[in-house]
Fold this protein.
Amino acid sequence: MSAPFILLLVVLAAGVLMRLPVAFAMLASVIAYLLAGRQDPALVAEQVLNGLYNSYVLLAVPLFILAANLMNAGTVSERLFDTCRVFVGRLRGGLAQIDVLVSVVFSGMSGSAIADAAGPGLVTIRQMLKKPGYPPGFAGAVVVASATIGPIIPPSIPMVIYALVSGTSVGALFLGGVVPGLLMAVVLMLTVQLIAQRRALPREEPVPAGRRWAALREGLLPLSLPVVLLGGLYSGGFTPTEAAAVAAVHALLLASLVYRSIGWRTLAGVLLQSARSSAVITLIIAGAFALNYAFTAEGVPQALAGWIGAQGLSAWQFLLLVNLVFLVLGCFLDTTVMLLVFVPMLLPAATALGVDPVHFGVVVIVNMMIGLITPPFGMLLFVTQALTGIAIRDMLREGWPFLLALLGLLAALTAWPSLVLWLPRLAGYAG
Protein backbone atom coordinates (compact mmCIF):
# COMPACT_ATOMS: atom_id res chain seq x y z
CA MET A 1 0.00 0.00 0.00
CA SER A 2 1.63 3.24 -1.16
CA ALA A 3 1.88 6.45 0.85
CA PRO A 4 -0.44 8.36 -1.55
CA PHE A 5 -3.07 5.63 -1.16
CA ILE A 6 -2.83 5.81 2.63
CA LEU A 7 -3.34 9.58 2.31
CA LEU A 8 -6.42 8.92 0.14
CA LEU A 9 -7.94 6.70 2.83
CA VAL A 10 -7.18 9.25 5.56
CA VAL A 11 -8.72 12.15 3.62
CA LEU A 12 -11.77 10.04 2.70
CA ALA A 13 -12.32 8.96 6.31
CA ALA A 14 -11.87 12.54 7.54
CA GLY A 15 -14.41 13.81 5.01
CA VAL A 16 -16.96 11.21 6.06
CA LEU A 17 -16.42 11.95 9.77
CA MET A 18 -16.79 15.70 9.10
CA ARG A 19 -20.09 14.88 7.33
CA LEU A 20 -19.04 16.38 4.03
CA PRO A 21 -21.24 15.41 1.07
CA VAL A 22 -19.95 11.99 0.09
CA ALA A 23 -19.18 13.09 -3.50
CA PHE A 24 -16.96 15.92 -2.24
CA ALA A 25 -15.21 13.59 0.23
CA MET A 26 -14.42 11.14 -2.59
CA LEU A 27 -13.19 13.83 -4.97
CA ALA A 28 -11.03 15.48 -2.28
CA SER A 29 -9.42 12.16 -1.37
CA VAL A 30 -8.58 11.36 -5.00
CA ILE A 31 -7.14 14.83 -5.60
CA ALA A 32 -4.92 14.35 -2.53
CA TYR A 33 -3.86 10.94 -3.89
CA LEU A 34 -2.97 12.35 -7.32
CA LEU A 35 -1.03 15.30 -5.97
CA ALA A 36 0.89 13.15 -3.48
CA GLY A 37 1.74 10.68 -6.26
CA ARG A 38 2.76 13.49 -8.64
CA GLN A 39 0.12 12.45 -11.17
CA ASP A 40 -1.75 14.80 -13.49
CA PRO A 41 -5.31 15.40 -12.18
CA ALA A 42 -6.37 16.61 -15.64
CA LEU A 43 -5.85 13.15 -17.16
CA VAL A 44 -8.00 11.52 -14.50
CA ALA A 45 -10.65 14.22 -14.87
CA GLU A 46 -10.72 13.53 -18.61
CA GLN A 47 -11.25 9.81 -17.97
CA VAL A 48 -14.05 10.52 -15.50
CA LEU A 49 -15.82 12.88 -17.90
CA ASN A 50 -15.46 10.40 -20.76
CA GLY A 51 -16.98 7.73 -18.53
CA LEU A 52 -19.93 10.02 -17.78
CA TYR A 53 -20.55 11.40 -21.25
CA ASN A 54 -19.99 8.17 -23.16
CA SER A 55 -22.42 6.15 -21.05
CA TYR A 56 -25.71 5.99 -22.89
CA VAL A 57 -27.18 3.77 -20.15
CA LEU A 58 -26.48 6.44 -17.53
CA LEU A 59 -29.00 8.75 -19.21
CA ALA A 60 -31.75 6.47 -17.92
CA VAL A 61 -31.13 7.57 -14.31
CA PRO A 62 -32.36 11.21 -14.53
CA LEU A 63 -35.25 10.14 -16.75
CA PHE A 64 -36.48 7.55 -14.25
CA ILE A 65 -36.10 10.15 -11.48
CA LEU A 66 -38.24 12.57 -13.50
CA ALA A 67 -40.88 9.89 -14.11
CA ALA A 68 -41.10 9.09 -10.39
CA ASN A 69 -41.39 12.76 -9.41
CA LEU A 70 -44.11 13.34 -12.01
CA MET A 71 -46.02 10.33 -10.68
CA ASN A 72 -45.83 11.67 -7.13
CA ALA A 73 -46.89 15.17 -8.17
CA GLY A 74 -49.75 13.97 -10.35
CA THR A 75 -52.04 12.26 -7.76
CA VAL A 76 -51.09 8.85 -9.17
CA SER A 77 -50.29 7.61 -5.66
CA GLU A 78 -53.82 8.38 -4.43
CA ARG A 79 -55.41 6.63 -7.41
CA LEU A 80 -53.25 3.54 -6.97
CA PHE A 81 -54.20 3.49 -3.28
CA ASP A 82 -57.91 3.44 -4.17
CA THR A 83 -57.37 0.68 -6.74
CA CYS A 84 -55.41 -1.55 -4.33
CA ARG A 85 -58.03 -0.98 -1.63
CA VAL A 86 -60.48 -2.94 -3.80
CA PHE A 87 -58.22 -6.03 -3.75
CA VAL A 88 -56.79 -6.24 -0.22
CA GLY A 89 -58.64 -3.67 1.88
CA ARG A 90 -60.90 -6.29 3.44
CA LEU A 91 -57.96 -8.22 4.88
CA ARG A 92 -57.19 -7.65 8.54
CA GLY A 93 -54.74 -4.77 8.75
CA GLY A 94 -56.03 -3.76 5.33
CA LEU A 95 -54.28 -0.38 5.15
CA ALA A 96 -50.89 -2.00 5.73
CA GLN A 97 -51.65 -4.64 3.09
CA ILE A 98 -52.68 -1.89 0.68
CA ASP A 99 -49.33 -0.16 1.19
CA VAL A 100 -47.37 -3.29 0.23
CA LEU A 101 -49.50 -3.86 -2.88
CA VAL A 102 -49.22 -0.20 -3.91
CA SER A 103 -45.42 -0.47 -3.56
CA VAL A 104 -45.44 -3.41 -5.96
CA VAL A 105 -47.43 -1.45 -8.54
CA PHE A 106 -45.52 1.81 -8.05
CA SER A 107 -42.18 0.01 -8.35
CA GLY A 108 -43.09 -0.77 -11.95
CA MET A 109 -43.07 2.97 -12.65
CA SER A 110 -40.44 4.66 -10.52
CA GLY A 111 -37.43 2.40 -9.81
CA SER A 112 -36.72 4.34 -6.61
CA ALA A 113 -37.25 3.39 -2.96
CA ILE A 114 -37.19 7.04 -1.85
CA ALA A 115 -39.90 7.97 -4.38
CA ASP A 116 -42.04 5.08 -3.11
CA ALA A 117 -41.76 6.21 0.52
CA ALA A 118 -42.35 9.87 -0.33
CA GLY A 119 -45.34 9.18 -2.62
CA PRO A 120 -47.56 6.15 -1.96
CA GLY A 121 -46.00 5.63 1.46
CA LEU A 122 -46.99 9.09 2.63
CA VAL A 123 -50.56 8.57 1.41
CA THR A 124 -50.81 5.29 3.34
CA ILE A 125 -49.34 6.69 6.56
CA ARG A 126 -51.85 9.54 6.56
CA GLN A 127 -54.67 7.03 6.19
CA MET A 128 -53.36 4.76 8.96
CA LEU A 129 -52.87 7.61 11.42
CA LYS A 130 -56.54 8.56 11.01
CA LYS A 131 -57.70 5.21 12.37
CA PRO A 132 -57.30 3.56 15.78
CA GLY A 133 -55.23 0.41 15.95
CA TYR A 134 -52.33 1.61 13.80
CA PRO A 135 -49.49 2.95 16.00
CA PRO A 136 -47.36 5.58 14.21
CA GLY A 137 -44.26 3.40 14.51
CA PHE A 138 -46.03 0.49 12.83
CA ALA A 139 -47.31 2.71 10.02
CA GLY A 140 -43.81 4.02 9.36
CA ALA A 141 -42.24 0.54 9.60
CA VAL A 142 -44.62 -0.89 6.99
CA VAL A 143 -43.89 1.96 4.60
CA VAL A 144 -40.09 1.80 4.86
CA ALA A 145 -40.12 -2.00 4.52
CA SER A 146 -42.39 -2.02 1.46
CA ALA A 147 -40.45 0.83 -0.19
CA THR A 148 -37.48 -1.52 -0.54
CA ILE A 149 -39.42 -3.31 -3.29
CA GLY A 150 -39.18 -0.22 -5.53
CA PRO A 151 -35.69 -0.80 -7.00
CA ILE A 152 -36.09 -4.59 -7.29
CA ILE A 153 -39.13 -4.85 -9.59
CA PRO A 154 -38.23 -3.18 -12.91
CA PRO A 155 -37.51 -0.48 -13.80
CA SER A 156 -34.70 0.06 -11.30
CA ILE A 157 -32.22 2.91 -10.95
CA PRO A 158 -29.72 0.82 -8.91
CA MET A 159 -29.83 -1.91 -11.57
CA VAL A 160 -28.99 0.65 -14.25
CA ILE A 161 -26.00 1.79 -12.19
CA TYR A 162 -24.91 -1.82 -11.58
CA ALA A 163 -25.12 -2.46 -15.34
CA LEU A 164 -22.92 0.59 -15.86
CA VAL A 165 -20.08 -0.74 -13.67
CA SER A 166 -20.41 -4.42 -14.54
CA GLY A 167 -21.33 -4.44 -18.23
CA THR A 168 -24.31 -6.70 -17.47
CA SER A 169 -27.45 -6.58 -19.63
CA VAL A 170 -29.99 -4.14 -18.20
CA GLY A 171 -32.82 -6.22 -19.65
CA ALA A 172 -31.58 -9.39 -17.94
CA LEU A 173 -31.21 -7.54 -14.64
CA PHE A 174 -34.73 -6.14 -14.91
CA LEU A 175 -36.16 -9.61 -15.52
CA GLY A 176 -34.02 -11.01 -12.71
CA GLY A 177 -35.66 -8.63 -10.25
CA VAL A 178 -39.26 -9.60 -10.98
CA VAL A 179 -39.50 -12.82 -8.94
CA PRO A 180 -37.44 -11.51 -5.98
CA GLY A 181 -39.55 -8.34 -5.90
CA LEU A 182 -42.80 -10.29 -5.86
CA LEU A 183 -41.41 -12.60 -3.17
CA MET A 184 -40.52 -9.54 -1.08
CA ALA A 185 -44.14 -8.45 -1.32
CA VAL A 186 -45.35 -11.93 -0.31
CA VAL A 187 -43.16 -12.16 2.80
CA LEU A 188 -44.07 -8.62 3.85
CA MET A 189 -47.79 -9.25 3.41
CA LEU A 190 -47.53 -12.47 5.39
CA THR A 191 -45.71 -10.58 8.14
CA VAL A 192 -48.43 -7.92 8.17
CA GLN A 193 -51.06 -10.67 8.36
CA LEU A 194 -49.40 -12.29 11.39
CA ILE A 195 -49.12 -8.96 13.21
CA ALA A 196 -52.66 -7.96 12.24
CA GLN A 197 -54.10 -11.22 13.57
CA ARG A 198 -52.23 -10.89 16.85
CA ARG A 199 -53.22 -7.25 17.37
CA ALA A 200 -56.70 -7.52 15.81
CA LEU A 201 -56.01 -4.67 13.42
CA PRO A 202 -59.11 -3.31 11.65
CA ARG A 203 -60.37 -4.24 8.21
CA GLU A 204 -61.39 -1.61 5.69
CA GLU A 205 -65.03 -1.03 4.85
CA PRO A 206 -66.06 -2.71 1.60
CA VAL A 207 -65.81 -0.45 -1.43
CA PRO A 208 -69.28 0.21 -2.95
CA ALA A 209 -69.82 -1.49 -6.29
CA GLY A 210 -70.09 1.80 -8.19
CA ARG A 211 -66.92 3.21 -6.66
CA ARG A 212 -65.14 -0.13 -7.11
CA TRP A 213 -65.32 -0.01 -10.89
CA ALA A 214 -64.35 3.66 -10.96
CA ALA A 215 -61.27 2.92 -8.81
CA LEU A 216 -60.25 0.04 -11.04
CA ARG A 217 -60.70 2.14 -14.16
CA GLU A 218 -58.61 5.01 -12.77
CA GLY A 219 -55.84 2.59 -11.80
CA LEU A 220 -55.60 0.99 -15.21
CA LEU A 221 -53.78 3.90 -16.83
CA PRO A 222 -50.87 3.99 -14.34
CA LEU A 223 -50.76 0.19 -14.48
CA SER A 224 -50.26 0.40 -18.22
CA LEU A 225 -46.80 1.94 -17.80
CA PRO A 226 -44.98 -1.24 -16.66
CA VAL A 227 -46.65 -3.13 -19.52
CA VAL A 228 -45.48 -0.55 -22.06
CA LEU A 229 -41.97 -0.40 -20.60
CA LEU A 230 -41.32 -4.12 -20.36
CA GLY A 231 -43.15 -4.92 -23.57
CA GLY A 232 -41.14 -2.38 -25.53
CA LEU A 233 -37.89 -3.36 -23.85
CA TYR A 234 -38.12 -7.09 -24.45
CA SER A 235 -39.67 -6.84 -27.89
CA GLY A 236 -36.71 -4.73 -28.98
CA GLY A 237 -38.89 -1.66 -29.48
CA PHE A 238 -36.55 0.54 -27.45
CA THR A 239 -33.42 0.46 -25.32
CA PRO A 240 -33.38 0.84 -21.51
CA THR A 241 -32.57 4.53 -21.87
CA GLU A 242 -35.38 5.02 -24.35
CA ALA A 243 -37.64 3.11 -21.94
CA ALA A 244 -36.80 5.68 -19.27
CA ALA A 245 -37.76 8.48 -21.66
CA VAL A 246 -41.04 6.70 -22.44
CA ALA A 247 -41.71 6.43 -18.70
CA ALA A 248 -41.16 10.17 -18.22
CA VAL A 249 -43.42 11.10 -21.15
CA HIS A 250 -46.09 8.63 -20.00
CA ALA A 251 -46.05 10.11 -16.50
CA LEU A 252 -46.23 13.65 -17.86
CA LEU A 253 -49.21 12.87 -20.09
CA LEU A 254 -51.07 11.15 -17.24
CA ALA A 255 -50.47 13.97 -14.78
CA SER A 256 -51.09 16.89 -17.13
CA LEU A 257 -53.64 15.78 -19.74
CA VAL A 258 -55.52 12.82 -18.25
CA TYR A 259 -55.76 13.68 -14.54
CA ARG A 260 -55.15 17.44 -15.01
CA SER A 261 -53.48 17.52 -11.61
CA ILE A 262 -50.26 19.28 -12.55
CA GLY A 263 -49.87 22.80 -13.93
CA TRP A 264 -46.96 24.80 -15.28
CA ARG A 265 -45.83 25.98 -11.84
CA THR A 266 -45.90 22.45 -10.41
CA LEU A 267 -44.15 21.10 -13.50
CA ALA A 268 -41.36 23.65 -13.08
CA GLY A 269 -40.93 22.53 -9.48
CA VAL A 270 -40.81 18.87 -10.52
CA LEU A 271 -38.19 19.60 -13.18
CA LEU A 272 -36.08 21.56 -10.68
CA GLN A 273 -36.33 18.80 -8.06
CA SER A 274 -35.42 16.15 -10.64
CA ALA A 275 -32.45 18.19 -11.85
CA ARG A 276 -31.16 18.54 -8.30
CA SER A 277 -31.50 14.82 -7.58
CA SER A 278 -29.82 13.94 -10.87
CA ALA A 279 -26.97 16.36 -10.17
CA VAL A 280 -26.36 14.78 -6.75
CA ILE A 281 -26.22 11.29 -8.27
CA THR A 282 -23.96 12.47 -11.11
CA LEU A 283 -21.53 14.03 -8.63
CA ILE A 284 -21.44 10.78 -6.65
CA ILE A 285 -20.83 8.81 -9.86
CA ALA A 286 -18.00 11.18 -10.85
CA GLY A 287 -16.41 10.84 -7.41
CA ALA A 288 -16.77 7.06 -7.53
CA PHE A 289 -15.20 6.87 -11.00
CA ALA A 290 -12.23 8.86 -9.73
CA LEU A 291 -11.96 6.69 -6.63
CA ASN A 292 -12.11 3.55 -8.74
CA TYR A 293 -9.18 4.87 -10.78
CA ALA A 294 -7.10 5.08 -7.61
CA PHE A 295 -8.18 1.64 -6.40
CA THR A 296 -7.41 0.11 -9.80
CA ALA A 297 -4.02 1.86 -10.00
CA GLU A 298 -3.16 0.39 -6.59
CA GLY A 299 -4.30 -3.09 -7.68
CA VAL A 300 -6.95 -3.35 -4.95
CA PRO A 301 -9.56 -5.34 -6.96
CA GLN A 302 -6.94 -7.84 -8.12
CA ALA A 303 -5.48 -8.17 -4.62
CA LEU A 304 -8.95 -8.69 -3.17
CA ALA A 305 -9.78 -11.33 -5.79
CA GLY A 306 -6.47 -13.07 -5.04
CA TRP A 307 -7.12 -13.04 -1.29
CA ILE A 308 -10.64 -14.47 -1.74
CA GLY A 309 -9.27 -17.13 -4.09
CA ALA A 310 -6.64 -18.09 -1.52
CA GLN A 311 -9.35 -18.71 1.08
CA GLY A 312 -10.79 -21.53 -1.01
CA LEU A 313 -14.34 -20.15 -0.80
CA SER A 314 -17.14 -21.67 -2.81
CA ALA A 315 -19.51 -19.43 -4.74
CA TRP A 316 -22.16 -19.75 -2.02
CA GLN A 317 -19.67 -18.94 0.75
CA PHE A 318 -18.44 -15.93 -1.23
CA LEU A 319 -21.99 -14.63 -1.60
CA LEU A 320 -22.59 -15.14 2.11
CA LEU A 321 -19.48 -13.08 2.85
CA VAL A 322 -20.65 -10.40 0.42
CA ASN A 323 -24.04 -10.30 2.16
CA LEU A 324 -22.42 -9.79 5.55
CA VAL A 325 -20.15 -7.03 4.21
CA PHE A 326 -22.95 -5.12 2.50
CA LEU A 327 -25.35 -5.51 5.41
CA VAL A 328 -22.75 -3.75 7.57
CA LEU A 329 -21.84 -1.14 4.94
CA GLY A 330 -25.54 -0.48 4.33
CA CYS A 331 -25.82 0.83 7.89
CA PHE A 332 -23.43 3.66 7.03
CA LEU A 333 -23.18 4.27 3.26
CA ASP A 334 -25.45 5.34 0.42
CA THR A 335 -26.55 2.70 -2.09
CA THR A 336 -24.99 4.53 -5.04
CA VAL A 337 -21.62 4.73 -3.30
CA MET A 338 -21.62 1.00 -2.55
CA LEU A 339 -22.59 0.14 -6.12
CA LEU A 340 -19.93 2.34 -7.67
CA VAL A 341 -17.04 1.82 -5.26
CA PHE A 342 -17.29 -1.62 -3.66
CA VAL A 343 -19.05 -3.69 -6.33
CA PRO A 344 -16.27 -3.14 -8.93
CA MET A 345 -13.75 -4.41 -6.36
CA LEU A 346 -15.75 -7.61 -5.82
CA LEU A 347 -16.65 -8.34 -9.45
CA PRO A 348 -13.29 -9.98 -10.36
CA ALA A 349 -13.66 -12.42 -7.46
CA ALA A 350 -17.29 -13.14 -8.39
CA THR A 351 -16.28 -13.83 -11.99
CA ALA A 352 -13.41 -16.11 -10.91
CA LEU A 353 -15.80 -18.16 -8.76
CA GLY A 354 -18.35 -18.49 -11.57
CA VAL A 355 -21.05 -16.38 -9.93
CA ASP A 356 -23.57 -15.25 -12.53
CA PRO A 357 -23.42 -11.43 -12.83
CA VAL A 358 -27.23 -11.09 -12.91
CA HIS A 359 -27.62 -13.22 -9.78
CA PHE A 360 -24.79 -11.29 -8.10
CA GLY A 361 -26.30 -7.94 -9.03
CA VAL A 362 -29.81 -8.73 -7.82
CA VAL A 363 -28.58 -10.23 -4.53
CA VAL A 364 -26.34 -7.21 -3.89
CA ILE A 365 -29.13 -4.73 -4.63
CA VAL A 366 -31.62 -6.58 -2.38
CA ASN A 367 -28.90 -6.42 0.27
CA MET A 368 -28.53 -2.69 -0.20
CA MET A 369 -32.27 -2.14 0.02
CA ILE A 370 -32.25 -3.82 3.42
CA GLY A 371 -29.47 -1.38 4.33
CA LEU A 372 -31.89 1.48 3.68
CA ILE A 373 -33.94 0.42 6.71
CA THR A 374 -31.16 -0.44 9.15
CA PRO A 375 -29.74 2.01 11.70
CA PRO A 376 -27.86 4.22 12.25
CA PHE A 377 -28.08 5.77 8.77
CA GLY A 378 -30.98 3.99 7.08
CA MET A 379 -32.00 6.52 4.44
CA LEU A 380 -35.64 5.41 4.26
CA LEU A 381 -35.97 5.85 8.02
CA PHE A 382 -34.76 9.44 7.81
CA VAL A 383 -36.93 10.27 4.77
CA THR A 384 -40.06 8.90 6.46
CA GLN A 385 -39.24 10.65 9.73
CA ALA A 386 -38.75 13.97 7.91
CA LEU A 387 -42.05 13.65 6.01
CA THR A 388 -44.24 12.39 8.85
CA GLY A 389 -42.55 13.25 12.15
CA ILE A 390 -42.68 9.59 13.27
CA ALA A 391 -39.73 8.88 15.58
CA ILE A 392 -37.07 6.60 14.11
CA ARG A 393 -36.87 4.61 17.36
CA ASP A 394 -40.60 3.82 17.05
CA MET A 395 -40.16 2.59 13.48
CA LEU A 396 -37.20 0.45 14.53
CA ARG A 397 -39.15 -1.07 17.42
CA GLU A 398 -42.05 -1.99 15.13
CA GLY A 399 -39.94 -2.89 12.12
CA TRP A 400 -37.84 -5.82 13.29
CA PRO A 401 -40.34 -8.51 12.06
CA PHE A 402 -40.19 -7.01 8.55
CA LEU A 403 -36.38 -6.87 8.70
CA LEU A 404 -36.20 -10.53 9.69
CA ALA A 405 -38.59 -11.48 6.87
CA LEU A 406 -36.44 -9.66 4.29
CA LEU A 407 -33.24 -11.21 5.67
CA GLY A 408 -34.79 -14.66 5.35
CA LEU A 409 -35.69 -13.97 1.73
CA LEU A 410 -32.16 -12.65 1.06
CA ALA A 411 -30.78 -15.96 2.33
CA ALA A 412 -33.11 -17.86 -0.03
CA LEU A 413 -32.09 -15.73 -3.03
CA THR A 414 -28.45 -16.33 -2.17
CA ALA A 415 -28.85 -20.09 -1.83
CA TRP A 416 -31.06 -20.65 -4.90
CA PRO A 417 -29.89 -18.60 -7.93
CA SER A 418 -32.81 -19.95 -9.99
CA LEU A 419 -35.15 -17.63 -8.08
CA VAL A 420 -33.33 -14.78 -9.81
CA LEU A 421 -32.29 -16.40 -13.09
CA TRP A 422 -35.46 -18.27 -14.05
CA LEU A 423 -37.13 -15.40 -15.94
CA PRO A 424 -33.93 -14.12 -17.66
CA ARG A 425 -33.16 -17.63 -18.90
CA LEU A 426 -36.73 -18.06 -20.05
CA ALA A 427 -36.23 -14.91 -22.16
CA GLY A 428 -33.02 -16.25 -23.69
CA TYR A 429 -30.38 -14.93 -21.29
CA ALA A 430 -27.35 -17.24 -21.24
CA GLY A 431 -25.06 -16.06 -18.47
The mean pLDDT is 83. The longest helix spans residues 264-297.
